[in-house]
Automatic annotation (TrEMBL):
Compartments, record wording: Cell membrane; Membrane
Stretches that traverse the bilayer: 137-159
Keywords of this entry: Cell membrane, Membrane, Transmembrane, Transmembrane helix
Membrane topology term: Single-pass membrane protein
Identification of the protein by name: Regulator of SigK
Biased composition (Low complexity): 1-18
Keyword Transmembrane: yes
Organism: Pannonibacter tanglangensis
Length: 292
């Protein structure tokens, strides 16, 4: 998915510019822009109040998706591997710096003593070890800082713009008539493949394809899961081939039920032959209420 900007000369608030600018704001919040596009968006955020409001709207709408991201424990040997890699890189860098610092006074000493190597008066073994420890500590500090800043959500939905000012996002509550729900479906916590938006008022389930893998001779079928096995999986339909967005009917399901989820299975072309899942679950994600 690539970033988008409003057409040249278009009024960002007008019909020609707003959809593209709103999509750009959404991709900026999701972190899916390229490096140059993100830099331009950051500059625009500082100079364009309308764009800043759109970014604030997207951050509010996507905030509940944090609840759908399950924590992933790092491998037990991750810290040891990071420290080992840092040590190796720091030592290699230190060797180069030490060699260059020692070589310069050595060359001048050779010149002053007729070609004989003279000791460096200001650089002892103890000094070198102290500097090496400082460089290692600095590298570890930089790593910790960059790790603390690394956090992202990957999902993009086309949703109508909402009012800029809203109360703080509340925890999911009871199911409301005409409620909307979101689900980010992925494979084992990997990068999101499909974003599902359920609108019980319009009766439409919208699925935006972010890069789901589908064999040419098979179909991806969408299922509603009650979360407590109170009913069998309910088929919502099949994803359209080569379409960025698929619209399916809501059908009779309680999308606000606790732990309700969306699952996608790999089925024969056209969908399951018997109304039940027959293939493996390739993507899944929990449903959460969309804030109003």
């Amino acid at each position: 998915m690539t970033g988008r900007a409003a057409p040249p000369g278009a009024d960002p608030a007008g019909p020609a510019g707003r959809p593209e600018l709103d999509a750009l704001a959404g991709e900026f919040v999701l972190g899916s822009l390229g490096e140059d596009e993100r830099r331009e968006a950051e500059e625009r955020l500082q100079s364009d109040p309308h764009f800043a409001r759109l970014v604030a709207d997207w951050r509010h709408r996507l905030a509940p998706l944090d609840e759908a991201v399950l924590p992933v424990a790092p491998p037990p040997d991750l810290l040891a591997r990071i420290e080992s890699e840092i040590d190796a890189r720091v030592e290699a860098s230190a060797d180069v710096r030490i060699a260059s610092r020692v070589a310069a006074p050595a060359r001048s000493g050779q010149a002053a003593t007729g070609g004989r190597l003279a000791p460096s008066p200001g650089l002892t073994d103890l000094d070198l070890m102290r500097r090496l420890r400082i460089w290692r500590a600095a590298a570890l500090s930089a790593l910790a800082t960059s790790s603390a800043l690394a956090a992202s959500v990957a999902v993009l939905l086309w949703m109508p713009a909402a009012p800029t000012e809203r109360p703080p996002v509340a925890a999911p509550g009871p199911v409301a008539t005409g409620a909307r729900y979101l689900a980010v479906v992925n494979r084992d916590g990997a990068q999101p493949a499909i974003v599902v938006s359920v609108d019980t008022q319009t009766g439409i389930v919208s699925l935006r394809d972010l890069g789901a893998e589908q064999p040419a001779d098979r179909s991806l079928e969408v299922w509603y899961l009650a979360g407590d096995n109170s009913r069998p999986p309910l088929s919502l339909g099949v994803l359209a081939d080569s379409a960025e967005v698929t619209h399916l009917p809501v059908r009779d399901a309680d999308y606000g039920r606790q732990n309700a989820a969306i699952a996608i299975t790999l089925e024969p072309k056209g969908g399951s032959p018997n109304g039940d899942p027959t293939g493996p679950v390739v993507y899944s994600g929990r449903l959460i209420p969309e804030p109003r």
